[in-house]
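Lecture 7 notes: from sequence to structure.
We start with the chain below.
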Amino acid sequence: MIFEKIHTIPTSEELLDKAFRKASRARKGKTIRSEYSRRRAEESMLLTAANILSDNLANVVRQFPSFDNIPEFYRELADILVGVDALRTNIASVQWAGEKIHEVARLHVGKMRHSDDSVAVRKAAYGRISSIVNDVDKNLRLLNEARNKLRKLPAVGMEPTIVIAGYPNVGKSSFVALVSSASPEVASYPFTTKGLAVGHFKVGSTRCQIVDTPGLLDRPLGQRNEIEMQAISALRHLGDVLLFIVDPSGTCGYEPDKQMRLLDEVREHIEMPMLVAANKVDLLVADNKVEPLVAANKVGMLDKIPGNGFDAVMSTLTGEGVDDVMGRLVSMMDMGKYDGTIDK
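Predicted structure tokens for the same chain:
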């Protein structure tokens, strides 16, 4: 995955401690017999410290990808989670620090060659360098926080993809767990899914993926939280087909009419083939609100479920209807467009 290679980013204190310790060891190997040899030893200390700091700061910069060249899905998620402009600003500050340290080191090496006190010049350089590194400590810490968030994003490939959407607690994670390799956390309270989860399954010899999104709520885009925005990004950029799950029993904590309004909003803004499935029908059957699930899947029976507009019904608790829903989703994907671009 794009962000997996980003290592833990050290603080300014850690960087300075590492650089000055190694510089001290470099000096210990020098024999001081004259002012010339003393100056050479001081130069070695200064250049060793400066190179270590510059190299480490440059490594921080190099680990982050160019946000102009990564897939739009990852760029949008990074913007949601940490802010791409903020990342660029902090990365630029770290890059400036690395370049400035080289400049300070070269300047003070030149001063040493015309000074009678090379130790004082080296100490002055250390002071300038320490100030520069400490100035970007906040940038280093913010980048490390960003790194910790970005590394948790799932690896999403160029494969046939099903995206699942719907209100919290309607059964999205349960569906993913039943049909794929993913093991998302499943619980009976809303907002269990705190980020995107990706599972895989095969159609013949072709690997496909299914993306479980955090639950969406029926409210304007500008009022949605970070978790909901991740789901919207997945819907916009990933899917070949969308499974929208509704809980007509209302046991998810949200009335069916609210769920259907969200469905209308998704239809308005997301352009991809969609299958709308009513889940938890076992609860409705138990309440004698609809005929048994097998019968409910027959043509003409779906309209007996409270709320309209369902293409299929299922129960992720009992497993009934799940294979039918999955089969219909697979039939809706354009597998041919991935020829030559996916692992088989």
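Points to note: The first strand starts at residue 161 and ends at 165. Confidence is low (pLDDT under 50) at residues 185-193, 292-301, 340-344.
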